[in-house]
Structures are given as C-alpha cells and as structure tokens.
Specification:
The structure holds 2 protein chains of 2 kinds. By secondary structure, chain A is an all-alpha fold. Helices cover about 80% and strands about 0% of the residues of chain A. Chain A has 2 domains: about 100 residues; about 55 residues. Chain A starts with 8 loop residues before the first helix and ends with a helix. Chain B contains 8 helices and no strands. By secondary structure, chain B is mostly helical. Classes of the chains: A mainly alpha, B mainly alpha.
C-alpha cells in the first residue's frame, strides 16, 4: 500500500487548487473549440491521446519503478479511462437536454458521491472528522452557488 | 444538438437531470477508483494509463460512429487539441490525481470542484464580468470550507 501520509496533505491541497484552476482554463479553451463544430468525443479522443504522449516523458521513470506493483493497481487505473470518457459524454448529453443553469450546479455535487464511496469502502484511509465534512459541504455548496451565478 | 428547452417538453429536461446525475456518478466513481489505484502505483502512472485508455476507447467510438468527423480535422483544430491536452491531461488531470493521493478524497475532491470559481475569476479579470452577490456568497462559502479542511490538517 502506498499511503502518502499526513505530511503530504498541504501539498495535496495546493495540487487540488492548481488542478481546479487548470480545469477552469481548459473549460475556456474547450468552449472555443466547440464553436468550430468539433464533436465532443472527437476532441476527447484527440486530447486524451495527445495528453498521454505529452505525459510519457514525465511518467516514464515512475512507470519503470511501478512495474513490480500489484496488477490491480494497473487495472484500477485502466478503469478510470472509460469512466472519465463516460462522465464527459454524459455531461455533454446533459447539456444537450437541459440548460447549463440546471446541469452545472448538479454536476458540482460530485465530490459528495466520492466522499460517500470513500466513507463506505475506504474509511481506514480517509479522514472523516466533522470539520473536514463540514468544510467539504461548504466548498461543494459554494461551488453550486458560483455555478448558478455564472449562468445567471 | 439542440437543448431540450428548444425541442420542447419537460421530458427532455428530466433526461438532462438524469444525464447530470450519471455525470455525478461517473466523476464520483472516477476519483474513488483513482484513490484505489494510487494506493498501488504512482499518480503519474495512473494518469498515463487513464489518458491512454481514454484515447483508445475514444478513437474506437469515433471510428465507428463519427468517422467523417476525423477527416474534417483542420490544422488549427489540431493545435487547439494539443493546447487542451497540455492543460487538461498533463497539468489538470495529473495534478488532480496527485492531490487525491496526497490529500485523500475527502479533502481533494471538494477543492477540485471549485473549478467554476476559477472560471468566474478568469471572467472577471479578463472579460470584465460582474461580481454578483451570489458569486460573493459562493466564494465566501468555498473559502470558509477550504480553511476548515486545511485547519483540520494543522491539528492532525
């Protein structure tokens, strides 16, 4: 088991904030690309393949060291590919059937699902103190409000 | 590709809600499984495998159902794909999977869901969008939530 330990938590929070900022920048670019009538799945296929090619030099060293890791680690990783693809596909389908004002606030609640799954299956590895749970609810609630503000 | 509101009928809206909930389930399961995977292998390896499989499955779907779209890809579109790949996969996805490994699902995923806040900040700074009361309340709630999550770590 490779648990990161509590010392890495502050860095993890900085990484999460940076990722959120980069996802926001990406969403602006995606909106520009979508105006050119490119189908979402075409874009996802290209960006995933190109992203994997760009990541290869970064991940190569770790990949060599991970060769002896349990096979299930690789199986779980492989499963995230189609799951991400399905989530993105459902998101675009939702936008085709409902306005953004309905879709975005609903989608912003996904961390609650992740936390519920972690509570059910990973309670030994995750922190569920009242302040973390209240903090998570505040962040998700705030994100829902910002999503509503964004489309209004 | 028209929204249901333009196609008429609340059944379309209901379908949109169902798809939204499926999206929620998709992202929730993705980060849960990322947490399982990073217990055995590095976040960089997980991101590489995830993006490779997404690319293969994505191209298989496109080859079967959207083949004519592949032939219409322009050099400009390809340039955008490269830029999106850099920010979305190399930076955002890699950092998000790393954050799930380092901080755990409970702390990382709520912070990852603050993307709309950053999008609004980009809009206010670069597109002169207005700061509304709802945006301020949402921002305050997010900030308070992050402080609570970080402070708990300080006491751990």
């Amino acid at each position: 088991m490779r648990d990161a330990g509590t010392k890495m938590v502050p860095l993890g929070i900085v990484a999460a904030l940076s990722a959120a900022a980069f996802y926001a920048a990406t969403s602006v670019m995606v909106r520009i690309v979508m105006k050119t009538d490119v189908h979402p799945f075409v874009m996802v296929a290209f960006t995933s393949a190109l992203g994997a090619a760009l990541l290869l030099p970064v991940a190569a060293r770790g990949l060599k060291e991970d060769r002896k890791a349990p096979l299930r680690g690789f199986a779980w990783a492989a499963l995230t590919g189609p799951l991400t693809l399905a989530a993105v596909g459902f998101f675009y389908s939702a936008l085709q059937h409902s306005p953004v004002v309905v879709v975005n606030p609903l989608v912003a609640t996904y961390p609650l699902g992740s936390i519920l799954l972690a509570r059910l299956f990973l309670s030994r590895h995750e922190s569920f103190s009242p302040s973390v749970v209240i903090g998570a609810l505040l962040v998700v609630g705030g994100s829902v409000l910002v999503s509503i503000a964004a489309v209004n | 590709m028209l929204p249901a509101s333009r196609r008429g009928g609340s059944s379309g809206d209901m379908l949109g809600v169902v798809y939204s909930l499926l999206t929620v389930a998709g992202f929730a399961f993705t980060y849960f499984i990322v947490r399982l995977a990073t217990q055995h292998i590095r976040a960089s390896t997980v991101t590489l495998i995830s993006a490779t499989v997404s690319g293969i499955v994505g191209f298989a779907i496109v080859a079967i159902f959207l083949r004519e779209q592949l032939l219409g890809i322009t050099l400009v579109a390809f340039g955008w794909f490269l830029l999106v790949a850099f920010t979305q996969v190399l930076l955002a996805r890699y950092l998000s999977y790393t954050s799930v490994h380092w901080a755990g699902i409970t702390r990382a995923t709520p912070i990852l869901s603050t993307t709309p806040l950053f999008a609004m900040i980009l809009g206010v700074v670069f597109l002169d969008e207005r700061v509304t009361p709802l945006l301020l309340i949402g921002t305050l709630a997010i900030t308070a939530g992050i402080i609570l999550i970080v402070r708990q770590q300080g006491r751990a």
